[in-house]
């Protein structure tokens, strides 16, 4: 008997012992017949099993080991590592500006550059006002022929200021929206809705400024014949001063000092500290307003109040009392502007304060008919 015949005989004997039927398929060519020896062996085992055997003796599937993990390395190998969060790449792209957006610091406006641009536009407005004064003196309007006469004549004084304000304001309305990419009043954080919502508090702030004026007048009275008193020469001139002081003056002065100068100085201080310490600029608030440090706001308020008082000190005869009062009122206006985040709020306080002052003067002089009682 050959070796192959002996192997076939042993296989047949084992199959008969298990009760399996004899297989007559040819094992030499599974690809042609579709026969799979492994599958057929399992099927033969199931066929050979007696009825009910599998129900009483279900196959046992071994459990996976407890240490099995789909991660290539165990979590304890890297403390603090979360396998669900991908690690950041340890390399930096060669052209990062093309693969990642550039981080741009928030634009805080207005800043010192915008303040310088305003100064240039104001010089243009001053030239226009000077031309108007020269033309008036040339034609001897209101009987004025010299510059000294023009400085004390109410039409020249108020008219030249109106030309200065309107010319500069018109240029600002055209140029600054192009520079800022937004409207002029939006760039200055006008926020009229905030001023309307806080109107009663703003009237209270104006009344507080009047109280400061009363205390200052008692403690440090001004001169009896200040240069500004010469502008109240007639009843008509007094009412013109009243109208100008309640409308033009507070509007344009607030734009200059609390709209441009105050935020520019606060931004300049914080920017210098950021450059020295390497700290990033704070983001803008929900309304797009810059956020300044407390020291920057205090310093900017003081530095803003000094020139605000200086431009009025000549009209008050260089007296200390009115000068200190103007600084105190300016600090209140700066506080309102910074607290309310609204330039319109400081304009309301300024206009209300002037209105109360002129109303008191009009009441004491009988509607400016008795100017000798001023």
- Unreliable segments (pLDDT under 50, ≥5 consecutive)? 14-32
Tally of individual helices = 16
Range of helix content = 55-70%
Structural class: mainly alpha
Taken in chain order, the helices and strands follow as: HHHHHHHHHHHHHHHH
Radius of gyration from the CA trace?
45 Å
How confident overall, as mean pLDDT? 82
What's the number of structural domains?
A: 2
Q: What profile does the largest beta sheet have? A: none
Range of strand content: under 5%
3D shape: elongated
Distance between the termini: 147 Å
Strands, count = 0
Question: Concise description?
Answer:
The protein is mostly helical and 374 residues long. It is built from 16 helices and no strands.
Which key phrases capture this entry?
mainly alpha, 2 domains, elongated
Describe the structure.
With 374 residues, the protein is mainly alpha-helical. The protein contains 16 helices and no strands. It has helices spanning 3-18, 30-33, 37-48, 53-56, 96-99, 112-138, 147-151, 154-180, 184-187, 192-197, 199-219, 235-246, 248-277, 294-313, 320-340, 343-364.
């Amino acid at each position: 008997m050959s070796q192959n015949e002996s192997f076939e005989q042993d296989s047949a004997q084992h199959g008969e012992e298990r009760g399996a039927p004899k297989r007559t398929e040819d094992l030499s060519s599974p690809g042609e017949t579709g026969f799979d020896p492994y599958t057929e062996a399992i099927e033969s085992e199931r066929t050979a099993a007696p009825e009910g055997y599998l129900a009483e003796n279900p196959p046992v599937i071994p459990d996976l080991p407890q240490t099995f993990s789909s991660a290539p390395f165990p979590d304890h190998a890297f403390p603090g590592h979360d396998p669900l969060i991908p690690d950041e790449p340890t390399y930096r792209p060669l052209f990062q500006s093309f693969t990642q957006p550039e981080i741009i610091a928030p634009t805080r406006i207005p800043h010192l550059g915008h303040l310088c641009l305003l100064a240039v536009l104001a010089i243009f407005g001053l030239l226009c006002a000077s031309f108007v004064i020269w033309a008036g003196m040339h034609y001897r309007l209101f009987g004025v022929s010299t510059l000294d006469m023009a400085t004390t004549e109410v039409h020249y004084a108020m008219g030249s200021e109106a030309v200065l304000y309107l010319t500069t304001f018109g240029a600002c309305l055209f140029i600054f929206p192009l520079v800022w990419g937004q409207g002029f009043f939006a760039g200055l954080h006008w926020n009229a809705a905030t001023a309307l919502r806080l109107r009663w508090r703003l009237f209270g702030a104006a009344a507080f400024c009047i109280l400061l004026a009363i205390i200052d007048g008692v403690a440090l009275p001004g001169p009896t014949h200040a240069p500004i008193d010469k502008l109240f020469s007639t009843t008509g001139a007094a009412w013109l001063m009243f109208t100008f002081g309640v409308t033009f003056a507070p509007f344009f002065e607030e734009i200059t000092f609390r709209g441009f100068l105050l935020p520019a100085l606060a931004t300049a201080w914080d920017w210098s500290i950021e450059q020295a310490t390497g700290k990033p600029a704070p983001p803008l608030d929900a309304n797009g307003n810059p956020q300044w440090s407390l020291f920057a706001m205090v310093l900017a308020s003081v530095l803003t109040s000094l020139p605000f008082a200086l431009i009025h000190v000549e009209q008050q005869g260089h007296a200390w009392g009115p000068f200190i009062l103007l600084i105190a009122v300016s600090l209140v206006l700066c506080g309102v502007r910074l607290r309310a985040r609204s330039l319109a709020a400081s304009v309301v306080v300024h206009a209300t304060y002037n209105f109360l002052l002129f109303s008191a003067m009009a009441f004491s002089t009988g509607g400016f008919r008795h100017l000798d009682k001023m």
